[in-house]
Give the backbone structure.
Amino acid sequence: MFFDAMHDAIGSTPLVRLKLDAAPGVEVCAKLEMHNPFAMKDRVARSMLLEARRLGVLRPGAPVIESSSGTMALGIALVGRSLGHPVHIVTDPRIDTITLAKLRALGCEVHVVERMSSHGWQSARIERLEQLRADLPGAFWPQQYSNPDNPGAYRELAQELVTDLGTVDVLVGSVGSGGSLCGTARALRRHNPDLYVVGVDCVGSALFGQPDRPGRLQSGLGNSLQPANLDASLLDEVHWLNDHEAFAATHELAHDQQIFAGNTSGSVYQVLRYLARTSEPGRRVVGIFPDRGDRYAETVYSDDHWQQHRLTGLERAEQPTQVTYGTEVHAWSRALLADARPTPRTLLFVESNTTGTGMAALGLTRELGYTPVFLTNDPERYAGLADTGSEIIVCDTNTLPALRETVQARFRRDEIAGVTTTSDFYVPAVAELATWLGAPGNPPEAVRICRDKARLRETLDRAGVRQPRFVAVRDAAATAAAVADVGLPCVVKPADDSGSTDVLRCTTAEQATAHVAHILKRTVNARGLPMAGTALVEQLADGPEFSVEMFSTEGHHHCVGVTAKTVTGTPHFVEQQHLFPAPVAASVAADLERTVRAALTAAGIRFGPTHTEVRLLPDGPVIIEINPRLAGGMIPEMIRLATGTSLLEQQVRAATGQQPRLEAEFTRQGGIRFLMADQAVRLAAVEGVERAAAIAGVERVTVTARPGTEVRPATDAYGRLGHIIATAERPDEIEKILDAAEGEIRFR
């Protein structure tokens, strides 16, 4: 296979079936990560550096600095130098001569600290690294211990295992930074939720409830610190081996399997032999072997080293002793983590909508036993935020690097249950964060397609999904030709705004051209996020409007129901009324659902709630837009009152990795009527709210307009003055209730 650069040669490592004394039907395989150009950490280096370059955090030619005494240093050297960056490696005297020679040959500058600090060699290296950061402005520090791009790198390894094996039942891996085992396990669990995960540590490491002993000889696993990337909630069992046991197993791995490896692989091999004998028939066990043995020629494979450190004087157990987690160990031992592993309880929210259910979602999250953390650049935007009991973190939510930096600095990975939003504007950022963290979420590309309606139109067109004729316009001068293509009247709208903002029915080419020019002049939206600089000119789909509420799990789309919508008269399209379930024939509802399922599949949506707007024409449904988030405008509350199903609760459940519960508890007719001004006036008072709320069937009357403010006929969702929510036993009753309630309310 031909590669353009050395960093392209990383991955696709061999998988070898080990010759072991195994129970009947048990298959044990080794994933030989040592067959990367240098070792397993090559994957991590490539992931972290390429992501940093994509986000603009690592500028072309800027220095890269990292702390490592082993394969991470080699990976950073390989990828950094391959991409044209100066590389500085901070290490300590334990570094082997072969690694040191390789780093210098690759053109790295190596900084060797002279003595341990208060927390051992790692803390001493970090102190030296901080000095380098001050001396090298613009330098990028990958931070392998806390950067989620470390475990994220192993999604590729997991996919290679799935491609080669289909199913993995037990995964075994050594633990140092927490990246390889946790990243691989998290990805494999999406294919096999029952995957059993075994971590391998060394005696004297502080990773799993043991006292730190800095004098341990094993390298590549163990730690004196608690890395933020170590997600112990993913592990079922942990084994500890002392130096004698690990080194002896490494020798036996070479002798018995002809795999010349380092002590990390030897330790994993020791545990694999145990699992081969004790696993249930039919189980497939895979161990990750990180690096080759050449770095260990003067330690693991040196008789002088063994004698100098009196390794044979250490105990060597033939079987692991099972201990209670937290019991101090000195030789091969194992502990089950069922009662000791943490449960992630923090749900991150990135901003919120302001016209619907955002604050309610925060309160519900707390009721479900999670801690809501609200990331925002402006807490004052949200009425009632302080009453939700959320932790509020003020940060720049409009740039992905700033969001990632905030999350990485504030949270350990095993604290985070998931990440979500109720804001249309921030679903792309949430998809990016979820992928970065390995949390449940949609592919970022699918969300970007849905948010950019021009890209969505092009995607649906390629897939043959029905939609209006359209032309994407990026220069107002091209509008006349677009109008000639789609016909008049037409609809002109921005490709990536929300809430019907700047959506206009145009009856002449001149009107359309002027509106396109208006749209293209806007460079940011209401939240200060950059706009796509694209307007859509599309065919007027003149028919009843519906929205189809779906919930997706691993690409399977469950229909919650269909909402019938009434919009204001042209030239604007402001939703005035919602009815759920839509009063349509079952065959019509099925046709709407079928069309939306095809659209979601074409766009690549795989997870969570979607709110898809559809128009029903005489020859069938056409897709208007896909919103990759829960419906706004209080539709979730209407559905809850009509069916007993809280879509907000299901969003929280899905975001935290639980299965949503979508079956209706009962069936009633729900309705929402939005309150709007019929002329531009200064509002003096609102009357009749109490009388409207007292009408039988009315569940809630909410007025958002305040006396003293200027109000005018709504041109988008933000111009509405409030809403009425009602329920009824029969569809023919609901509009009468809404009419009666609206008739009681007066805006003076």
Observations:
- The first helix runs from residue 41 to 55.
- The mean pLDDT is 95.
- Residues 169 and 195 are 5 Å apart (CA to CA).
- The two ends are 76 Å apart (CA to CA).
